[in-house]
């Protein structure tokens, strides 16, 4: 049997945090699947990465931003044209308590 990184109890806790109800079969399945995924990471850890520089992006790109350009914004009529409910030039939304 392979090493178990995640226990069934931990899967139950994760499900509780996510507010997800799992059957016993699903708990067993997810425990097995989480451990298989983590086993792949263990295999990656075995690789010699001593001479590989750390990267944060797969492409060598830095600061790829478009230039800010001043453009006219939407008119009041255009910005409320598709609103389901409006009152004058304002959007009307349901009251939230």
Provide keyphrases for this structure.
single chain, 97 residues, mainly alpha, Histone, subunit A, two-stranded antiparallel ribbon, flat
How would you sum up this structure, described in words?
- The chain is mostly helical and 97 residues long.
- It has a domain at 8-45: Histone, subunit A (Orthogonal Bundle).
- It has 3 helices and 2 strands; from the N terminus they run αααββ.
- The protein has helices at residues 8-17, 24-45, 76-80, and strands at residues 86-87, 90-91.
- A two-stranded antiparallel sheet has the order 1-2.
- Helix 1 (8-17) crosses helix 2 (24-45).
- The chain is flat, with a radius of gyration of 26 Å.
Looking at the overall shape, the CATH architecture of the domain at 8-45 is Orthogonal Bundle
Number of strands: 2
Judging from the principal axes of the Cα atoms, what is the shape?
flat
Report the end-to-end length measured between terminal Cα atoms.
Answer: 53 Å
Q: Averaging pLDDT over every residue, what do you get?
A: 87
**Proportion in helices:** 25-40%
H and E order: HHHEE
Q: Which strand-content bin applies to the residues?
A: under 5%
Number of helices: 3
Structural class: mainly alpha
Spatial ordering of strands, largest sheet: 1-2
The CATH topology label of the domain at 8-45 is: Histone, subunit A
Largest sheet: 2 strands, antiparallel
Low-confidence stretches: none
CATH class of the domain at 8-45: Mainly Alpha
Rounded Rg: 26 Å
Oligomer: single chain
